[in-house]
């Protein structure tokens, strides 16, 4: 966190601050995005009637506090001097929610950014918002990941149909999924957590590793897959979930076995069944 957080800009300086981040009222400057290799994620407008404001407040609060900031700077850049209004919004969730609601009555685009300009949120006047930042801060603000956020946004726009603002529909078409969801066991890239889960299943099914070693390594690979936000088709994910649930019933230490627990042979049977199910999936 920078020493002595700056006071919120006002008037012409607020415009200058916003101009460093924004290309226009619906997009960020490419030069600013290039600093630190920032990514942009679309989000549903916080004014939606399903608690969107509170969710957005939590996103901003997580990003600010997780990077050592106790506030964000927010303004309505579209107004221009002397109409620019800036506020210093506390980073705690409740203070953030109050600050966001204070920006809503004008019905204009508004911008909220970290004091060091490492991340920012732009809420457009077209019914959607854009979050921009590096991978580390986006993991805090958008824990579901870039691709999940894009999918949810596209689904929301499709749900609106003809009621969607044309600019929102255009934005939905502009965003792309970065990773295609893997549909079969041959598709995961080498070194991915998913590829390792499948490899471990094959090794255990062939009795090349022990049950306890399989359990430890498979759980570690699954955690890595989730941390990297690797995407799977529903059928593929369901099959791996079956292995996860079987491991919950597996007694790695015979002395701790309880009635109904799986032993090595029982677990191997489940894994072989799951592998057969994977073999039936088509790319």
**SSE run:** HEEHEHEEHEEEHHHHHHH
Shape: elongated
The rounded distance between the terminal residues' Cα atoms is 47 Å
Task: Name the strands of the widest sheet in spatial order.
Answer: 3-8-7-6-4-5
Could you tell me the radius of gyration in angstroms? 24 Å
The overall strand count is 8
The number of helical segments is 11
Verbal overview:
By secondary structure, the protein is α+β, with helices and mostly antiparallel strands. The protein has two domains: 11-174, no CATH class; 193-279, Four Helix Bundle (Hemerythrin (Met), subunit A) (Up-down Bundle). It has helices at 11-21, 30-34, 52-66, 93-103, 135-141, 146-160, 166-174, 193-205, 211-227, 234-248, 264-279, and strands at residues 22-24, 27-28, 39-44, 71-75, 86-90, 110-113, 119-123, 128-133. Strands 3-8-7-6-4-5 form a six-stranded antiparallel sheet, sandwiched between helices. It has a two-stranded antiparallel ribbon with strand order 1-2. β6 and β7 (119-123) form a beta hairpin. The longest helix is centred in the last third of the chain and has 17 residues, at 211-227. The protein starts with 10 loop residues before the first helix and ends with a helix.
Key terms:
283 residues; alpha+beta; 2 domains; 6-stranded antiparallel beta sheet; two-stranded antiparallel ribbon; 11 helices
Topology:
Layout (H helix, E strand, L loop, with lengths): L10 H11 E3 L2 E2 L1 H5 L4 E6 L7 H15 L4 E5 L10 E5 L2 H11 L6 E4 L5 E5 L4 E6 L1 H7 L4 H15 L5 H9 L18 H13 L5 H17 L6 H15 L15 H16 L4
Antiparallel strand pairs: 1-2, 3-8, 4-5, 4-6, 6-7, 7-8
Helix pairs in contact: 3-4, 3-5, 6-7, 8-9, 8-11, 10-11
């Amino acid at each position: 966190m920078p020493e002595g957080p700056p006071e919120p800009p006002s008037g012409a300086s607020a415009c200058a601050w916003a101009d460093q981040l924004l290309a226009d009222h619906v997009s960020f400057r490419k030069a600013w995005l290039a600093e630190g290799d920032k990514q942009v994620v679309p989000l549903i407008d916080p004014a939606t009637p399903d608690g969107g404001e509170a969710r957005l407040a939590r996103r901003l609060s997580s990003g600010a506090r997780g990077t050592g900031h106790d506030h964000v700077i927010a303004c309505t850049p579209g107004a221009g001097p002397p109409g620019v209004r800036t506020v210093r919004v506390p980073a705690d969730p409740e203070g953030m929610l109050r600050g966001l609601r204070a920006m809503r009555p004008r019905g204009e685009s508004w911008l909220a950014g970290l004091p060091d300009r490492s991340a920012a949120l732009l809420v457009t006047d077209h019914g959607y918002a854009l979050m921009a930042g590096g991978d580390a801060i986006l993991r805090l603000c958008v824990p579901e990941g870039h691709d999940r956020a894009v999918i949810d946004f596209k689904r929301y726009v499709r749900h609106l149909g003809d009621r969607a603002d044309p600019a929102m529909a255009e934005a939905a078409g502009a965003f792309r999924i970065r990773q295609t969801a893997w549909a079969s066991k041959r598709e995961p890239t080498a070194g991915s957590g998913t590829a390792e889960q499948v490899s471990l299943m094959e090794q255990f099914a062939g009795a090349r590793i022990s049950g306890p070693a399989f359990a430890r390594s498979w759980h570690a690979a699954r955690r890595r897959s989730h941390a990297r936000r690797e995407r799977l088709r529903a059928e593929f994910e369901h099959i791996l979930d079956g292995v996860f649930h079987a491991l919950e019933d597996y007694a790695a230490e015979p002395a701790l076995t309880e009635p109904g627990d799986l032993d090595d042979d029982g677990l191997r049977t489940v894994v072989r069944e799951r592998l057969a199910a994977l073999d039936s999936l088509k790319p």
